[in-house]
From TrEMBL:
UniProt-listed InterPro entries: LipidA_mod_glycosyltrf_83
GO terms of biological process kind: lipopolysaccharide biosynthetic process
Example of a GO cellular component annotation carried by this entry: plasma membrane
Native species: Candidatus Ryanbacteria bacterium RIFCSPHIGHO2_01_FULL_45_22
Entry's localization field: Cell membrane
A single MF term (Gene Ontology): pentosyltransferase activity
Keywords: Cell membrane, Glycosyltransferase, Membrane, Transferase, Transmembrane, Transmembrane helix
Domain of life: Bacteria
Keyword Cytoplasm on entry: no
The name this protein goes by in its record: Uncharacterized protein
UniProt topology in membrane: Multi-pass membrane protein
Presence of the UniProt keyword Protease in the record: no
Length: 476
């Protein structure tokens, strides 16, 4: 008991953050599970799935885990082809928990615990800049309703956030340690790709940070060797999966996710925008074209069909590359400022279906925007609150890009690692289908950067106020 008390006194803030994050998420899960059990349609509960399985991706992970456990194959239920849409990390974890006799609630409890550790890691990472920055960023994460909600569902985000934070924390500490710690970081980054494929670009951020903000105790040769060790280790961990896909599907691609994104969303959404139709109508046009060129006569989201899907998507986009580029940039805005609250409320049956606000604005349909705010008052309030909050976070992060120049090397390394992860994820994940969930996996790094940027902005405003006040006194 004495040792426990000493630990708490030494790590009081970490303990409070961990406990708050875990209790909030477990409490939210118990509440939502109770409501889902007694309310038809709540959180998309149906005869085929029930919360915390919220359908779509959730169902894919659970179904693949059961096939893996029962048949020893990594495949979707009822499919003869091996799985090539999902990465294996999360389904493997689910299968392991099912094997031990646990169920979906066990997964949620584990995710709540990992969210607690994530809060601690955010606090520690932010403290490399200043303890106050870590404190603010960690509490934003603990209380963030989007993070809380998705931690209570069967999705990869919570695991991905924890392991990404762990990689960043170890990477920043490794600048004070032996070279082999960079190998450990590379190893973890490679494993991270098996959870979500967009992590494949993270080693580039880490290596770039090492070269731009070099440790003064390392020679250039030592720095380059460490960067190569990190990148090479990450590649060696990922390579077996790439080889597996080359053997099975004759492609080095990690997954069909990126191609599906272009075929099912990016290109059809642009087609619908330029032709004035709906997304469903555009998808049917693309599907007919796919069947014309695909010898497998299938539109399943697999690597076997991916080359033909990619050809259909880019065949259309090549007709107007600059027009699409502008459309892509404008429609990427939700990655930074979308509220995410309306989607959660919709899943809870608190609000109904709503029009796409971004599309209404892009097409200049001001009347449609006015109708939205008048007929969907509850959704409009959630939109306004969420957009104001995330606009502030984005403003703070952009301010941090400029303000970071006054930090010492260790602080710059921390800040620009966070910003680098956010922006490289935006380049990979943003586009016409961008939404709050795409942002969620890197939101802790936005919180850290924004906390610093807004704190610096507040300091600058106070400084300008004092200067203005003193100038006024001197003039009188």
């Amino acid at each position: 008991m004495k040792n426990l008390f000493i630990f708490f006194q030494k790590h009081k803030m970490e303990t409070i953050l961990f406990s708050a994050a875990v209790l909030l998420r477990v409490g939210a899960f118990l509440l939502l599970f109770s409501l889902a059990s007694s309310s038809s349609g709540f959180l998309f509960s149906s005869a085929t799935h029930m919360y915390p399985n919220i359908g779509a991706d959730s169902g894919g992970y659970i179904g693949t885990a059961h096939v893996l456990l029962e048949e020893g194959r990594f495949a979707s239920p009822g499919e003869s082809d091996p799985q090539s849409y999902l990465m294996p990390g999360y389904p493997l974890l689910l299968a392991f928990i099912f094997f031990l006799g646990g169920g979906l609630p066990s997964v949620i409890v584990l995710q709540a615990v990992l969210a607690g550790f994530s809060a601690v890691l955010i606090f520690r990472i932010g403290a490399f800049i200043a303890p106050k920055i870590g404190f603010i960023a960690a509490w934003i994460y603990v209380l963030d309703p989007i993070s809380i909600f998705y931690a209570t569902t069967i999705l990869t985000e919570t695991f991905f956030i924890f392991f990404t934070l762990l990689c960043v924390y170890l990477f920043l500490r490794a600048h004070k340690s032996a070279w082999w710690e960079m190998v450990v970081v590379g190893f973890l980054l490679g494993l991270l790709v098996y959870i979500r494929p967009n992590a494949i670009v993270f080693p580039a951020v880490f290596m770039g940070i090492m070269l731009v903000w070099k440790n003064s105790l390392w020679t250039w040769r030592q720095t380059i060797l460490r960067a190569v060790a990190l990148g090479a280790t990450a590649f060696l961990i990922v390579f077996p999966w790439m080889l597996r896909n080359k053997i099975l599907f004759d492609t080095w691609d990690l997954t069909a996710v990126a191609t599906i994104q272009w075929y099912m969303y990016n290109a059809p959404l642009y087609y619908a925008y330029t032709h004035g139709g709906t997304h469903s109508e555009a998808l049917e046009v693309f599907r007919r074209r796919l069947y014309e060129i695909n010898p497998y006569q299938s539109d399943q989201g697999t690597l076997r069909n991916a080359p033909y899907m990619r050809e259909v998507a880019f065949e259309y986009l090549r007709k107007d590359p600059f027009g699409y580029a502008w459309f892509h940039v404008v429609k990427s805005a939700p990655f930074f400022v979308s509220d995410g609250l309306r989607d959660i409320a919709r899943r809870m049956a608190l609000v109904g279906e709503q029009p796409d606000i971004g599309s209404l604005i892009l097409t200049g349909n001001i009347r449609g925007v006015i109708v939205f705010f008048s007929e969907h008052m509850r959704a409009a309030v959630l939109l306004a609150v969420g957009v104001m909050f995330w606009s502030l976070i984005t403003l703070g992060m952009l301010g941090a890009v400029v303000a970071g120049r006054v930090l010492p090397i260790a602080g710059k390394r921390t800040l620009y690692t966070c910003i680098g992860i956010v922006f490289i994820t935006m380049l990979v994940a943003a586009g016409p289908n961008a939404n709050a969930r795409y942002r969620l996996s890197v939101s802790p790094f936005m919180f850290i950067a924004a906390s610093y940027g807004l704190a610096h902005l507040r300091k600058w405003i106070n400084y300008r106020t004092i200067i203005s006040h003193e100038s006024g006194i001197l003039e009188t």
